[in-house]
Amino acid sequence: MSTPAAPSHAPTSAAVQEVPAGFVPFHADSDTFIGLCGPIYWKDVPGGTPILGMRLQSPHMNLRGHPHGGLLVTLADSGLGYAVNHVRGGPLAVVTASLSTDFIGIAHLGDWIECHVEIDRIGARMAFASCHLKVGERKILRASGVFAIVKPVEPPVGGHVHGRLQDPSPEAAAPTTPTE
Predict the structure, then answer these.
(1) What are the distances in angstroms from CA 178 to CA 123, 173, 175?
(2) DSSP code, position 58
(3) Are 119 and 49 within 8 A, CB to CB?
């Protein structure tokens, strides 16, 4: 039976909490999957694409003491989709159609990871973008995605709006009886 590997370095608790200047919470109050993965932050880049970032904490790590691959893919997918939608300038109306990732480096507990996106093309129905996750200047993941541009829809009662669960109205929750 194997035992979990120790992390390669243990940061101070202050380093774990530190968020670089200019970054603000990204869906911090969300009860959706993205809220579980965080905290994730974003920074606007005038004339460029927004950057998503996060500080690696213990819950983000796998049993070997490295960031879980699913977390890194989630950060890349979220960064790509958010940047595409931001550049489009419209309401949230893109969904991931295809995502390809390559793990090309490693990060450690306490590292600050950023998602840097390049928009390759935005058409009427599809958008194409690529990104690198970086720790400083060191690249740890590259990803490319294809996003379908879809018509925004009103969420159903009780559905998610901007990362928050809508409270159903008492009228919507009340059972109805058929009328003749």
Answers:
(1) 46, 15, 10
(2) G
(3) yes
Q: Could you give the CA distance from residue 58 to residue 109 in angstroms, rounded to a whole number? A: 7
Q: Is-contact 107 71, C-beta < 8 A?
A: no
Helix, coil or strand: residue 60? helix
Please name the amino acid found at residue 164. Answer: R
Q: Are 141 and 102 in contact (CB under 8 A)?
A: yes
Kindly tell me if the per-residue pLDDT of 83 is higher than 80. Answer: yes
Residue 16 binned pLDDT confidence (cut-offs 50, 70, 90): very low
Please answer whether residues 30 and 18 qualify as being in contact, where contact means their C-beta atoms are separated by less than 8 angstroms: no
Report how far residue 136's alpha carbon sits from residue 112's, in angstroms, rounded to the nearest whole number. Answer: 8
Contact yes or no for 117/132 (Cβ under 8 A): no
Q: Whole-angstrom Cα distance, residue 5 to residue 139?
A: 23
pLDDT digits (tens, 9 = 90+) for 87-103: 988 777 899 999 999 99
**C-alpha span between 102 and 59 (Å, rounded):** 22
Collapsed DSSP state (helix, strand, coil) of residue 29:
coil
Integer angstrom CA distances of residue 161 from 38, 78, 97, 114, 150: 18, 16, 21, 26, 16
What token pair was written down for 180? 């003749």
Taking residue 29's Cβ as centre, other Cβ atoms within 10 Å add up to 9
